[in-house]
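EI: anyone free to look at a 2009-residue chain?
SC: sure, send it
EI:
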Amino acid sequence: MKKRILSCVLSAALLLGLTPWSALATDDPLDDQTSQTELQTNFQSPPQDSDIYADPQPNIQEPETPEVIPEVVPEVQTTTVAVQATETTHSHKDGLTFEHALTSDKNGTLCIDGVPQVGNDINPSRDENLGNYMCYYLADDLKLNGSLKISSGRGINLCLNGHSIKQTGNVDAITVDNYNVVNLYDCSENNKGQVTHTDGATGRGIKFFASAVNTFNMYGGTITGNHATAKNDDTGGGVLVTGSAKGSFNLRGGVITGNSAANGGGVAVCSTQSNNKDTSRYFNMFGGTINDNQASDNGGGVYVENNGRVTVSGGEIKNNTATKGGGIGGGTHGTTNGSIDASTCPPIYITVSDRAKITGNSAPVGGGIYAGDDAYGYCRFTMTGGEISGNTSVHDKIYTYNGGGVYLGGTMTVSGDAKIVNNNKDNKSNNKDNESNNVFLPQDYTMTIGDGGLGSGASIGVTASQELADGDAVTIVDSGAASGSENYFTADAGTPYNIQRVDKTLVLVNGTLTHKHPICGKKCTHTLKHNDVTWTAINSAADLQKAAGGSSENDTKYYYLTDNVTLDSIWTPSGYLALDLGDYALTTTQSVDTIQLNSGANLTLTSCGTYGGTVQHSGRDVYGRGVVVASGATFTMYNVELTKHKAADFNVNGAGVYVNGGTFNMRSGSLVDNTSKGNFGGGGVLVDNGGTFNLYSGTISDGNAYLGAGVSVVNGSTFNMYGGTISKNRASDPNTIYGEGGGVYVDGSTFKMTGGEIKGNSASEAGGGVYVKNSTFTMTSGEIKDNTAHKWGGGGVYVASTSTFTVGGKDTITGVGGKVTITGNKLGSNTNNVYLSTNDTTSSVITLRSDLSKDSRIGVDKAGADKGAVKFATGATKNLDYYKSIFSSDVDAHSYKITNDDKGNLYIGAHQHTWNYTAVVDKLTAKCSADDCTLYQNNGYFVTIKASDQTYDGKEKKATIEAAKGWQGPDVKTIPITYEVKKDDGTFVKMAANSFPTAVGTYRASISLTGVDGNPATASVDYIISKAELTADDFTFTPPSSQLVYDGKAKAATVTPNKGAAGKITVKYYTEKGSEVDGLPTDAGTYTVKIDVDETESYQAAKDLTANNWKFAIAKADRTIILPKKDTVINNGVSQALGDASWKAVDGTLYGDGIRFELVDPPEGVTFDDNDHQLTVPTTVQEGTEIKFNVTAAERPNYNPASATFTVTVAAKSTEKLRNFMMTDRTYGDEPNQPSYEPVSGVIDGTLKTTYAVKNSDGTNSTFTEEVPTAVGNYTVKVTFETAVSVYTGTANFIIKPKPLTTEMVTSIANQTYCANAWEPDVVVTDGNKTLVKNSDYTVSYTDNINAGTAKVKVTGQGNYKGTAEATFVIDPAPLTITGTEVAAKTYDGTKTATINGVTFGGLVPGEVLTTDDYQITDAQFNSANVSDAKKVTVTVALKVTDKAKNYTLTSPTYGQAATISKATQNISVPQDKTLVKNGAGVDISQWVSVSGVEGGSPAGALNYALNGTYPGVTLTGSTLTAAKNATADTVTIKVTAAATQNYESAEATFSVKLSDKLFQSNFQFASGPIKKTYGDDSFTMTATGAAEGSTVSYESSDPNVATVDNAGKVTIVGAGRATITATAAETKDYFSANKSYTLTVAQAKLTITAKDQSAYIGDKVPELGADSYTVTGLVKGESLTTALTTLPTVRYVDENGQQMKPDMTKAGETVIRASGAAASGNYVIVAFTDGKLTVSARPSSGGGGSSTPSYPVSTPSKGGNGSVSSNAKNAASGSTVTITVKPDSGYQLETLAVTDHRGNALKLTDQGNGTYTFTMPSGQVDVKATFTQAADETSPFDDVSKDDYYYDAVKWAADSGITGGVGGSLFGSDQSCTRAQIITFLWRAAGSPEPKGAADMTDVPQDAYYAKAVAWAMENGITSGTGADRFSPHAACTRAQGMTFLFRSSKASASGTLAFQDVAADAYYAQAVKWAADNGITSGIGGGLFGPDNGCTRAQIVTFLWKLYAGK
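SC: here you go
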C-alpha cells in the first residue's frame, strides 16, 4: 500500500512539475481543447443583450475579499511530495496529503480526529504548509444526524476515500457557508465514495449557499440518493448552488446520479438576488457525469433560474427525466407576485460547447434542454459545440409535448460544431412511430447563427410549431446565415419540408418556396423571379376616392399612402385593389362608415411599415363602422389596426367590421377598442346574412357590445377561427337587457374553432368567452380560458338548449387529435367553464369526436345536475378514464363525478352509493341501500379475509384481505384487521393495537365494516402457528480456532442459535473412538461436537444434533529449542555454569524431560560436566576458537521430537556499556551535577575517568576534556573503567538551559508626558548582583508607547537567558488650555442659550488640531436672555474619548467670551376674511388681531390701529371700526403697528375688511358627514347651530318616503332609501340666509326566517307543515308578515341534497325542515333561512317490571341562522339539569332563547354566563329555539363623525375621556378651526384637569371662561406665556406650530437632531417641538417635505395629535 501511494504521489508531482498551470483545471491529460475551453469559460461570459445588464465578472475567479480562499487546486511542491502512509494521514493520487480523519459516533455526530464537533461543523483554520487549505478524509462511513456544515471563510480539500457521507435526517447532507472554496475528491476506483441519504430520509446532497463569494470544485465521488422535498424547498436534489452573492460549482469529475427534486433533480443553480447582475450563480461542467436524476417539474439533470448561468463544455448529462427539460431546464423568475420585469431582471444563460454530450434524457417539454419559458423569453441559450442527441419528448396528459432535443422559449445562438440530432418525439400513445424532433421553435421564435458561423461538424434538426401550406415558409434563423448555412440544418418533418436560405436568414419550407411579393409600395429585392407590379402613390383623400380596381385577381391594382389621409365620406373601392397604409392612418372625422365593399369588390388592406397602419374614427360624438363587406365582396387584412369605431344606436350593428353577406379574411393585425350598441352587437366584428369571417392570426380586443363584444355571428353566417387571439372584450348593457358572448356570440350560425385563443373576455350575463344560441359550435383545437360571466353561467362557453357543441377533430399542426382547452373561466368568482343549459323539452350536450386528444382539458357545468346525474356529452367511444382526464366538474360543492353508459353518453352528478354490510364466516359482502343504484341487484361484491396455518419462524404472521372483482366498498388497504389469541380455556382475547401474531398459538383475524344502517358486519378466520423443529442448520458452529496446537489449555467450541427463541444448548465433545470427553478437550487429537437443546414455547426439544463439519483437531506441539543468547566464553580456565538465563533452552528449562547437551569435537582441555552443567576453557585455547554443542528433545504424546546445534566462541575481555547511564540537564548558573549508572563490582583502581565535550549541531562531539562546562549549550559526558573480564563505557547527552527572565529582574521605569513621538526609555535588568548586558543577554521592544496611557516594555532573553519579562510605564496626557471660542450670532429667543461654532486650544503638540469630533460643548450661556450691552458667554468644554483627545487634559474647562444678542421680530396675526356691516354700529377689531413674540419670552409691543387710506363714511377710533350706511368703499385697509421693545423690533401689518350691507352666516353649522340608519330605528334629532341673531332655522327632507323632519330637527324614519336633510337659517337685516345639509341612508331591516322544529314518535304520522311552521324575526314593531313579505315562505322536509322528501317514521332519526321561496318588500331584506328539524324518537316505555328511569329527547336547532345551539345531552331524565350552550357567529348576538316542553309551555332558563344556560328536564321532549341578530354597530359619539374618518378613534377617545363634548347639537365640528383656548383646554383635560395654583393674569381671559383654569395651569407649567401685552388671544386660530409647541412642552420631552421638514428653520421657536413630534409619529407633515407651521389646525387634527400623544398611538 505504501508503495502504491508513494508511486501515485511521485507521478502526480512529476506531472504537476511539468504541466502548465492552466491545464490543471481539468481531470483529463493535456489535450488540445480542454484547457483552452475552460479558460474561456472562466474569463468570458455568455452573450448579452444590449438592453440587459453588462456582463458580470468571471464566474471562476479569485475573490476580492482577502478572507476568501482563492479557487485553485492547492499547489504541490515537487521537492517535498514524499508522503509516509501512517495511521493519521491519507494520501490522494493527486499528491495531496489529507491530515485529518473524519468519523461519526453512535449519536450521528461528526468527529475530527476522534473529537466530536458541535453542530457537525468543519471549521478549519488555515495551514500555510497546505496552500491555505485544510485537508480531510473519511476514515469510515459517516452516518450523521444533521447536516455536515462547512463554516465560512475557509478552504478545504475533502477526500471521500471510498467511504460515504450518509445523512439520516430530513436535512441536507452537506451545507457550505460564505467565503469558501471546497474541493471534493475520492481516491477510490469508480467513485465509490458517496454523499447520500439513508432510506426514508430526504434532503439535498449539498447545499452551496452564500451571501458572499464561494466556489465548489468536484473532482470525484458520487452524489446520489438525495431528494429535495417541500421540507427543503423542492429545489436541487443533488446539489443546490444558491445565495445572494456570486459563486460557482465546477464539476470536473465524479458522478451525480439517482437524485430527485421538483426542480433540478441533479443540480439547481439560482441566485436569491434576481435583480442584481453581481450575484450570479454559476454551474460549469468540464467533466463527470450527471445521470438518472428526476425532477417532477423542471430540469431533470440541471435546473437554472434567477440569475443563474450554466456552461457545459465536457462530461455527459444523460438519462435524466423531468416534466420540462429532461437534461437541462431553464425556469421562470421574477418578483414575488410572479411578474417579470426584463428591465431589472437579468436573463439566465445556458451554454453548451466543446465535448459536452447531452443524451438519453426525456421530458414532455424539452427532452434534452428546455430553454426558458416561452411566455417571457428571458433565457439565452448558446451552443458552440458538443452534442445533443438521443433525447425524447415523451407523451404527457397535461403538457403539449414537443422539443425532443431543445424546446426554445428564449433566444438561441448556434455556431461551431454544434450538433442537435437523433432526438425524438414519442408517439407511442397515439399508436404511431416516434418522429424526429430536435429543436422545437414555438411561433415567432427563431435561432441566430453566431460569430464565426457553423463548423464542418455541425448538424441541427428543426421542427416548427405551425403546419405549413404547400409553398409556405417560416423563419428558423433570423440572422447570421452565410452561404451554405442551410446545409447544416435539416427539417425534422422530412420531405417535402426543406431548409432554404433567404438573404441572411434560413426558412423552413413546405415544398418549393413560393415567391411572396411584398404587399407594399416598396421595390421588391427578392432574388426569385416574379412578375413586377406597379404601385401608385395616394397623397390625399381625393386620390384615394379616385383609386380604381382591376377587373380580376390577376389585374389587381396596387396603391400606397404617402401620408395620413382624412376622409369625410365613405370610401367605396371597386374591383380588385390592394392598398398599403405603411405607417399612416386612414381617419374618418364624420359619422359615416370608413370603408364599404359592395358586391364584386375585392380589397387587400395591408401595412408594410415599421409600426403598422391604422383605420380609425376621430372626433367627439363621431360614429361609424370601420369596414362594411357586402354579399359578393371580399376583404383581406394584413398588419392593420382597426380602432375607435362606434355603431351609433340599437339599429346599427358591427362597429369594427360588419360582414353583411361577404367574406372577411383577417391574416394579421388587430381590431381594438370598437363599440357597438346594435341589437346584434359585434363590437369588433359582426358577421350577418350568411357572411363568412376567417381569422388566421391577429388580435380582436377591448371591444364593447351588448352581444358578441369581440365577434357576433348571426343569421346563417360562418366564423372560422384558425388562429389569433380574441381577448379583453366586454359584453354588457347598462339596462341589463343583454350582455352575452364577451368573446364570441353565435345565433343561428356556425362557429368553427381549430386554433387560437379566446381569453380574458367578460359578459355581464352569460358566455364570457363564447355564447352559442340556435347554432353549431365545433372546436377541434385551441384555448378558451380566463373569461368571466357575471350572472347566468358559461364563463368560458354558454351553450343554449337549442344549439350543438362538438369537440374533437384533427389538429391542423400535428395531424392527430386536437387539444381542446377550456379552463380557468369564471362565473363571478366561481369556476365555470362550459355551461350546458336545458329546458323542459331539450337539453344541450356536447358531441364528442373520436379523435379528441387526451391532452384536452374541459370544465363542465350542466343545468339540472343538482337533481341527479344528467347527460352532458354523447359520442364517447373510449373508456371512461380517457374522458375523466379531459372533463371535470366546475361545481366542486356538489361533488359531481363523471360517469358513462354503454351507449356512449357521459353524465355528470353520478350516483352516490350508501353501503350496508353482511358477513358469512370469512366473507364480508356490500350492498347499496340507496335508490336508483346502477349496480346489478345493488351488489357491491365481497372481500375475504385469509390466513393459513404456519410454523413459527419469529416473523409476524398477518392475515390478508382479498377483494373480489367489482368490490365497491372501501379500499382493502384501509380496512383494519383485528387479531385475537386463544387462551387455555378456549376463549379468544383481543391483541393490543399494532400487535400481530408471531408466537406459537391459535389466532383469529377479523375485519368489520359498519353500514349506513348502523349494523356492523364481521368476517373472521382462525389459524395456528405451530412449534418449529430444530436442525443443525438452525445453529452456527464455530471451532476454537482455525489452527489448534496443544498448549496444555482446554479448547471450547461455540454453538450459537440462528433463532433467538431456541432453548438452552448443551455442548458435548467426542473422541475419534466415540467416547464422550469429560469436560473440555485439552490433549492433542480429533473431536466431534454434538448438542442437546431444551424445548421452548416456540421450538421442540432436540438431542445429539450435529453436522459433518462440527469437528476440530488439536495438533501436537513442536518442542522449540531456544538457542543460547550468549555466544562467547572467556579463556580464563575457570568453570562457567550454564545455568544463567542466557543458556536456557527447550520449554524454559535447562534440563527438561528427555533433554540433553553434548560437546562435539571440543578443543584440547575444554570440558563440560553434564551433571553440574559447568564448562571449563583453559587459557591455552586461542581467542576465536569455536566450541560446538548438540541439544536433543525426545517425542511425547503432546509433543513432536526436536534437536538443534549451537556454537560459542572463545574471546578476550568484553566491552560493556554501563547500564542506565544518564546525566540530568541543569539551568545556567546552577551547580554542576554528576552522571549516574548501575554499580559494577570489581572495578580496577585508577581506571575511572570522566570527560566532557560540546555537542555540535550536526550531532558530532568536540574533543572530550576534563573541564566541566558552565555556559548554555548541548554537551556529552563520558565515563570509562575496567574489571577483570570487561571494559565499561557510558556516555550521555545533557543540556545547560537558559535561565528564564522574570519581571522582578526589570527595574521600574519613570513616567513620561505625551509628545506625539514614541517613548523608549532605557531599561535596567539584573540577575542577583549581576547587571545584564543589553543585546547580549537580552533585547528590548516597546508597544503602546506614543499615546497617553500605559506603555508596555517587553524584555526578551538571549544567550544564557530565555523567555520574556514585561514592564510598564505611564505616558501622562499633555496639559491643555482654552485660548478662545467662536460664538454664533443670536437673535433674542427668550433663553440664555448660546451656540458655539468652535474652540481654540493652547498646549497642543505641533501639527495636531482638535475638532468637534474630539471635544464637546457641555454648556454655553449668556449672562442674561435680554438684549443689552456688555453681553458675555461662559462656555464649558469637555474632551471626548477619541484617539487624539485622550492625549490631553484640560487645565480649566470654562472660558468667558464677549458676544451680542440682536432684537427679535414680532409677529402680528391679522384676519384674512372679515366683513363689516354698513349699519353704523362699531366693531372692536382688536379681537381680530393678535401680536406675539417669542414663546416664553418677554411680551410683545403694544398695538396701534389706523386706516390705511381715506374712506368716506368709515371711521376708526382706537380699535373700534364703524361704517355708516352711506359708506361708499367696498373694502377698507387697516394698518396695525406693534411698538418696539427692549427685545423686539417694531412691526406692522395690514389687512382688509369688506364692507357689506349684510353678512354671511359663516358660523352656521349642521351635521357634516353622512348618517346611516336602519328601517325601524327610532327617531333622532340633529340641530343646526350658529345661526345669526334673529334668524330662524327650518328643516326639510328631500324624500318624505324615506324620512320626515320637523322644525326642531327631529327626523322620523319612514322607509328604506336615501334622503337629504337640509337646515336653512333665515335671512335677517344684517345676515344673508344660509343652509347646510347631510345625507341620510336608511338600510333595509334584516329578516331571518326559521323553520320550527317538530317532534314525533316512531309510527306516528308525518307532522304537517304549514303557515305556522316557521317564525320570522326582525320585523319592525307593529308590522305584519304581509307587510314585510311579498311572498310567504314554503316549508318542506328535505334530504341532504336539498330535495323534498318524506320522512321515514319507521325508525328514530332526524330530518331537516327547510323554509324557502320567500321574498321581502322594499323595506326589508332576508338575510338568512335557518333550518329546523324533525326528531323521530322511540316512544317512552311505561309499566311492566323493572325500575329504569325513562329519558326524553332534547331537540336543538340545526347549525345555521347566524349561530349554533348545542346541548350537553341528546336525551335526559326527568328532573335532571340540562345545559344549553349558545355560540353566535361573528358579527351576531343572541336575540331570543326559549325552551318549551311537548305541550308548548316555556321552561325557566338560568343564565350561567359565557353563553351557557340551564333548565330542569320535564317528563317529555323539549324543543330549544334561538334567534340571532346582527350585533349593534359601535355608535359614534357625534353625528358628524363617521367610523370611516381618519380621526374617528381619536375623537371617540377624546369624548370618552371627557376631553371634548363637541360644539353642540351632537356635532364635533371636525373641520372647524381650533382656537388657542380650545387646544389649551384639551391639554388640561387630558392631564386630568388639575387645579391651578392661581388665576391667569391675562386681560383677555375672564375668570369665568371655560378655559380660564386651563390657561392658568398652562402658564404655571411653562406651556404658554401668552401672545404679549398680557394677552392670551383665546379666540385666535391656533397654528400648527403653536399646537405642536404646546404638546411638546406639556410632554416635558426633549429632542435634537436634523429636522425632516424644509419649511422649519433650525432656529425657529417650534423647531425642536416639530422634531419631537415627527420622531414620535405624532405628525408626518402636510406632504411634499413640508410641515406647514403657519397653517391653521382643525379640531380633528388637534384631537388626533392629542390621541397619538396620550393614548400611545
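EI: The mean pLDDT is 82.
SC: 👍
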